[in-house]
Amino acid sequence: MDGTSRKMQKAKSSDEVSSKAAGTVEFTQDNAKCTLDEAAMTPFLREITLVSSGGAFLDGYVLSLIGVALTQITTHMSLTTHWTALIGASVLLGILVGSIVGGYLTDLIGRKKMFVADIIAIALFSALSMTDTTPLLLVIYRFFIGVFVGADYPIATSLITEFTPKHHRAISMGMVSAAWYLGATVAAVVGFALCDVDGGWRLMLGSAIVPCVFLLIGRCKVPESPLWLKSKGRHEEARRVVFRVYGADVILEDEEEEPKHKAGFAEVFSKGYAARIVFLGILTLCQVVPMYAIYTFGPQIMTAFGLGVGKGAILGESVLSLFFLVGSLPAMFWLNSMGRRPLLIRSLFLMAVGLLVLGLFPTAPLPVIICAFGLYAFFSGGPGILQWLYPNELFPTEVRATAVGLAIGISRVGTIAATYATPIFLASFGIGPTMLVAAGLVILGLVLSVFMAPETAGKSLDETSSL
Does 354 score more than 90 pLDDT? Predict the structure, then answer.
């Protein structure tokens, strides 16, 4: 059947009958068909977004909690600065490996299989972290936690993107960013509660098992992505998933169309896609390096600014986490109303202002320091969402997860180096120069965005991913 005939068939009126595995559904005049991009947001779609955001929650949780746990582990294991830096950076090295490999495998074998396996692995290595007695083993366990956390990003964000209608895409992806900050905030609260408990660091590292159990239960109910099934030529399976999730009124556009792209790394770097992956990798690096450094060594940084020591510093980090979390909430809506590009550029500018104040005036009065931190953290919301939304919108289904993984992977090269170097640089040069380096990275991201950031608001995935 040629393309014209298919389109005529999709336009037939109410007497059209669609036979599905779940039953036969008759369409009436009131039930005009629409595509996935035009569908309504249902409770089940929100549930998919919720359980998909769990990987980001775990990333924020395990990354932030190590900063608090290290205050105990350093004494317990007599850690040098070298080992402290290695433990902090090991999870980021794992995320680098996991995001690239996980993204490729997700495009190759499907979203669903990877979606469940990685949560089981995170729980396993979190449990092993509780039994550790040497710095080397802790580095190894943290590395593998990072591998599976990193793999979850291309898996989960691809699922959200491919299930969510276009007008809800920014909000749904905003949930991923908000989940990261929520995980970091919860980690600060748990760390605050356990920091004076003997052996509390073991409970901190093992506590990630709890959200893993809840996520595993929810994820087992999520079906395979219909767009991925369609890209593999499994059209009947894709139609059954669409019927189950959206109902009889929603169809896959160009259902019998053959894939335009092949899965693999070569396709991501072909033609105009190479420029996109470089832009996204560098932008994400500039956005997350300062944030990861602040979270991984939050208590030390809070102390350097005079925001307290011990539990006081942990409490200061908790307040900062709330600024990050609150900032992501309006950004979900601004990405549609204001647009992706304007929000990104304005946010990066204001983030840079906050970090420049911290770098140039590290001994400023406490209200100034708090306001500067708040300015940086609040306006991180938009760029924080776009680091997940942009790569999912700008690449086709066949290579979407691979592209997300590569963008994350490029950024994590910088975060590994920065996380290892932060405590060393902080000890050698002080908090002011450390914040100025962070401001320089954000300014680099700002300049890059002025020249390269696209506008994708209100467009279908076919439109945003086309060259």
Answer: yes
Tokens representing 335?
Answer: 């990405």
CB 403 within 8 A of CB 153: no
Tell me the C-alpha distance between 394 and 403, whole Å. Answer: 9
Domains of the chain: 43-465 (1.20.1250.20)
Radius of gyration of the chain (CA): 23
Residue with tokens 């090269």: 413
Q: In this structure, what token pair is assigned to residue 331?
A: 């950004």
Burial 384-401 (b: 16+ CB within 10 A, else e): bbbbbbbbbbbbbbbbbb
The tens digit of pLDDT for each residue in 282-319 reads 998 898 888 877 776 777 788 888 776 666 666 777 77
173-212 residue pLDDT tens:
888 888 988 888 888 788 888 888 888 889 999 999 999 9
- 261 CB neighbour count, 10 Å cutoff: 18
Give the chain's mean pLDDT. Answer: 82
The neighbour count for residue 333, using CB atoms within 10 Å, is 12
DSSP 8-state assignment for residue 35: E
The pTM of the whole model exceeds 0.85 = no
Instruction: List all residues 6 or more positions away from 19 whose beta carbon is below 8 Å from its beta carbon.
Output: none
